[in-house]
Amino acid sequence: MFICPVCKNILKKEVVSYICEVCETRYPIKGNVPILLKDEIQKALIERDRELLNAFEIYNRPPRLAYLQCNKLISKKNKKILDLGAGYGGLSKLLFEQNKEVYAMDISPNIAIEVSKFAPFPYIVGEAENIPFEDNFFDTVVSIQSFPHFINPERVVKEMRRVLVEKGEVIITIENIIWFYYRILMVLGKWGQIAEKNGRHFISSMYSYSDLLKLFKKQGFEPIADASTVIYINKNKKKIITIPLFKNLLSINYAIKFKLKK
Ligand SMILES: [Zn+2]
User: Fold this and answer.
1) Lesser CB count within 10 Å: N end or C end of the chain?
2) pLDDT band (50, 70, 90) for residue 206
3) Residues 52, 138, 221, 207: what is their CA dihedral angle, to the nearest 10 degrees?
4) Does residue 81 belong to any structural domain of this protein?
5) Where in the sequence is the domain holding 149, given as residue range(s)?
6) What's the gap in Å between 126 CA and the centre of ligand 1?
7) Cα(8) to centroid of ligand 1, in Å?
8) Residue 183: its pLDDT value, please?
């Protein structure tokens, strides 16, 4: 199931680690969490590992807008899901409650170890540019508000393609920085408020709706559904109503479902 992020061979499980018998790299299991990172990534991470907040409290918060958008787009029949950039695990929790087989993955060992103390689904530490799962493993990959953090987005999309089954699906949500309210703040010279909200941790790049379409189409994905413009939220019933209009102006979050043509 897991593959070596260095040489892509299947890893063998030992008591407190996974080992690659080809390149002889050993990957530790801390708590219940396999840390499947290349050595240099693990060393670089110390600098950019996120501030660890109260994991239990954040995990149990009501679903965020992006989770509800993702929930609306996810196919009922698709069971095996990778939550790429799972953070504090709120979306994985929501999916797990719907009897999905969900694997949470993020690059931050601290958060993963903390969340895995109470989360009932597996949590894996890995790099999105080097997803440590074998080919054709998932029905769906979801990536919620994570794209701006990826250093090499094209590589991430290629990896999503690799781990997906034939006609597999990807659901992406991403903040719309040209939402009308942000435009007003910009005109009023209050860009700092947006930056403060979005800049708490490492941002690599920002994307427009068409940037995202272009990125995925290039790797053989086609957009098949959209839940970007939300006009009603019922948080208790975990439902939202969306209209497919005025995405650039009215969406707080872009939410797109792609299908793989392979
Ligand atoms: Zn290896």
Assistant:
1) N
2) confident
3) 0
4) yes
5) 38-176+203-260
6) 14
7) 6
8) 82
Q: Domain containing 249 — which CATH number?
A: 3.40.50.150
Q: Give the distance (Å) from ligand 1 centre to CA of residue 82.
A: 22
**DSSP codes, 8-27:** -PBPEE-SSEEE-TTT--EE
Q: Tokens at residue 91, please?
A: 């979306």
H-type alpha helices, 83-219: 90-97, 109-115, 153-163, 180-187, 191-198, 209-217
pLDDT of res. 59: 93
Whole-prediction pTM: 0.91
Between the CA of 42 and the centroid of ligand 1 the distance, in Å, is: 16
Write the CA distances from 55 to 96, 194, 200, integer angstroms: 18, 24, 16
- Find the mean pLDDT for residues 23-46: 90
DSSP 8-state assignment for residue 80: E
